[in-house]
Design goal:
single chain; 280 residues; mainly alpha; globular
Amino acid sequence: MLAFSQIAADQFLSWGWRVPFLLSIILVGIGLWIRLSILETPIFARLVAERRIERTPIVEVIKRQPKEIILSALARTAEQAPFYIFTAFVFAYGVGTLKVSRDFLLVAVLAASVLSFFTIPLSGHLSDRIGRSNMYMLGAVTTGVFGFIYFALLDSGSLALIFLAIFLAIFLAIFLAIFLAIFLAIFLSLIPHDMMYGPQAAFIAESFTGRLRYSGASLGYQFASVIAGGPAPLIAAWLFAVYHSAYAIAGYILVCAILSLVAAALMKDYTGKDIAAEYA
């Protein structure tokens, strides 16, 4: 996106963004190759061998585990909505309201994404130590607080603080002391997200029985994208238009964080437990 922003210049909004968008098909191919190369879990392999696969898993999981689907979706609210505010809405807000260049914001978000490459697996690793639920709730609390810090930094008008806000939203709770002197604004923006995204796959998947796990986790995951991720930039734009304050958006992030905090607290945590016997 940054490269084609330079190449297309004033034509970026008309055609420049379409090229990297189309090139993302390469990532789809890589993702498919990885998925097809991964071995099935021992639980699912045993179910296949015993011919105990559900014929209509989506119907069965809706009938048998609707609570887990809803909790999974709500748990993702604080991860999904702020993520799209920090990585999508920030461009409209930064360029239109703060009068910051698009390329500067692209560089900041790119830097935050590079940090996520490390903080997502790190958060997953930490969740193995302190528990998925504890790590997830810590991330939700951090997200709820960080929304106000994030927009305070952006509204400062300082390019250094804006860059630090976006970059740091990923990593605030654990490594803030280390990175605060380096980047305080944009660098932070994805850190709270990663604290939840790291343990999320295992946390949600372990909530469902082996025969329904793939369908149940998928339903909860995608339902969150519909109710939280997709509408987030639109809600953020509406809130700013109505209240003329970015803190209204921070309040929205706080509400999402509370929903995720409650949902995560209600979900069972199987960290370090053998769930093969119970959930086969």
